[in-house]
């Protein structure tokens, strides 16, 4: 299982910027925390951060093949980027939106999230733990989907076997 963890502008400055809002921990610490959890869950995570909207869109588009789900903190692009929304809708991957803070309790302009118009789950205000919750959610969902698909394939094989045996009789 492969999951993209995508972070938007200024997330690379965690631990430096607005510590009273975002805390003391760095972006590198966030990445290590996610990677440790991914190892524990036996999942590959592709970590990516950019301050440029087009780069984020490009990375989402790359998930079209070979990626099973997306965890995204679009940061400031949450409130402005229809391009990111459109990219998510295009690749049709299960997506969880994460915000370190609770954006519904911040400035009015932060209350609108274009990404939430597509994301099946939004986690806010749980700090770095929100990423872990998102990862666990996607792994559980994708594992259940894989199990269901495997069950359907087995049922189809059984039907084919029964049909062949019926032809031989």
What does this molecule look like?
With 169 residues, the chain is of the alpha/beta class. A 5-stranded parallel sheet has the order 2-1-3-4-5, with helices on both faces. It contains 5 helices and 5 strands. Helix 2 (27-41) packs parallel to helix 5 and helix 3 (53-62) runs parallel beside helix 4 (82-91). It has a single domain, classed as Rossmann fold, CATH 3.40.50.9100. The chain has helices at residues 19-22, 27-41, 53-62, 82-91, 129-168; strands at 2-7, 44-49, 69-73, 95-99, 121-124.
Write the layout of secondary structure elements.
Layout: E1 2-7, H1 19-22, H2 27-41, E2 44-49, H3 53-62, E3 69-73, H4 82-91, E4 95-99, E5 121-124, H5 129-168
Parallel strand pairs: 1-2, 1-3, 3-4, 4-5
Helix pairs in contact: 2-5, 3-4
What brief labels describe this structure?
169 residues, alpha/beta, five-stranded parallel β-sheet, elongated
Number of helices: 5
What would the average pLDDT be, to the nearest integer?
Answer: 92
Order of helices and strands: EHHEHEHEEH
CATH architecture: 3-Layer(aba) Sandwich
Question: How helix-rich are the residues, as a percent range?
Answer: 40-55%
* Oligomer status: single chain
Radius of gyration: 19 Å
Task: Tell me the major beta sheet.
Answer: 5 strands, parallel
| Approximate strand percentage | 15-25%
- CATH topology, what is it called? Rossmann fold
* Apparent shape: elongated
Terminal Cα separation, in Å? 43 Å
| Number of E strands | 5
Number of domains: 1
Major sheet: order of its strands? 2-1-3-4-5
């Amino acid at each position: 299982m492969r999951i993209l963890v995508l972070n938007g502008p200024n997330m690379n400055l965690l631990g430096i910027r607005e510590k009273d809002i975002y805390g003391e921990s760095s972006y590198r610490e966030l990445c290590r925390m996610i990677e440790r959890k991914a190892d524990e869950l036996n999942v590959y995570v592709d970590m990516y951060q950019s301050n440029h909207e087009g780069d984020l869109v490009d990375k989402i588009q790359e998930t079209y093949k070979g990626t099973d789900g997306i965890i995204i903190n679009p940061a400031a692009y949450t409130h402005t980027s229809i391009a990111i929304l459109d990219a998510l809708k295009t690749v049709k991957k299960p997506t969880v939106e994460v915000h370190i803070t609770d954006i519904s309790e911040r400035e009015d302009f932060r209350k609108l999230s274009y990404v939430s118009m597509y994301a099946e789950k939004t986690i806010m205000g749980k700090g770095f733990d929100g990423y872990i919750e998102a990862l666990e959610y996607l792994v559980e969902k994708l594992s259940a989907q894989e199990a269901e698909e495997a069950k359907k394939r087995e049922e189809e094989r059984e039907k084919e076997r029964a049909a062949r045996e019926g032809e031989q009789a």
